[in-house]
Amino acid sequence: MKLLSLLERLPGSYAGPTQPEPGPHGLIGVGEGALAAHLAATLIPGTLTRSGTQFVVSSADAADAARDYADLAEVAGAAVRRVSTGGAVDDVDVLVPGGVLTAYHAAQYLAHASGHADQAADAETLLAELRGRCSPGVEDGNPARDLAWTLWGRLPLLLAAPDAEALPHAWQALLARVGKTLSVPVLGDPLALVTGAFEAQHEKGDAKVALLLGDPDPALLIAREVLDSRIDEVVAVPYPEGVNPAHPGGYAAQLALWYFGAWVAAYLAERYGLDAGDLPVLTRAQAVLAGESGPDTLTLGGAGGEGGRPPRFDRETPEDDLDASDREEDFDEDLDEDREEP
């Protein structure tokens, strides 16, 4: 099924366990579970716990690391809940769907299991509201499609306040995996980076757009002023309307902005004429790491075919992309202008 159809069906589709697990809680994510764990970190800030419940979120390609973390938690005295997209039966307590949407299903499980069912419900409300604004049937005023157009042909810089650092992680993953586009998360102190990054090479600010994800803090507002003078455009991507005032930048708001990023990335792939689904090379790589096939099956490939480069997409066609006849014609015209009449 196409990703756009899956995104339309996503709100309210969580069908996993909802009972809370004994606290205190610890949370570690590896493989495809890393993003879900990052998004749920506002609910479960602790990494390892010696009692209560240790959540280990993973995928089959990261089973070895997940198993080590689970064993360590059990030795320390915690009960372990293994959340995974697949693998050996003994390595999976809660099975979640694999792929781009793993983050939603695993994160919603973590919200329920950590005793935050109210925030899981808030997230579903926000996702449903976004679906009504971002679905393919919304032609005019579709914020996801409009933002995809803004990003087309540009290199996005991703910034967020320290308490929302999961968002640059989420958007970089979505823009790469779904939108087939490179983006650069700006982590740590944004002021040191943005004030110096373009000073020696001003042209590096060309074709760049910065996305301020979530609610900005004072440092991010100053960084925006600096970036306004150094790159093409700065765009604020706030949390959607309807966020619970009790958790203004919490789990539900961040999961909703992940969902919005998935819509943007899907429309960006559409703008480039590419499939928003996973490339075959990713599937093969995950199978090799999961021990399901040998490394000899892993070959590089992309939208341009096995081992080939995808086509180049630029807002303006550079001279290098002109065919030989066009360049020769322009060269001849220049020569004609320089000749002197006898």
Automatic annotation (TrEMBL):
What name does the UniProt record give this protein?
Answer: Phosphosugar isomerase
User: What keyword terms does UniProt attach to this protein?
Assistant: Isomerase
Membership in a protein family: Belongs to the PGI/PMI family.
From start to end residue, where is composition biased (Acidic residues)?
317-342
Q: Which InterPro entries match?
A: Glu6P/Mann6P_isomerase_C, PG_isomerase_N, SIS_dom_sf
Could you tell me the Gene Ontology terms of the biological process aspect for this record?
carbohydrate derivative metabolic process; carbohydrate metabolic process
Origin organism is Deinococcus budaensis
Question: Per the record, which residues fall in region Disordered?
Answer: 293-342
A Gene Ontology molecular-function term? mannose-6-phosphate isomerase activity
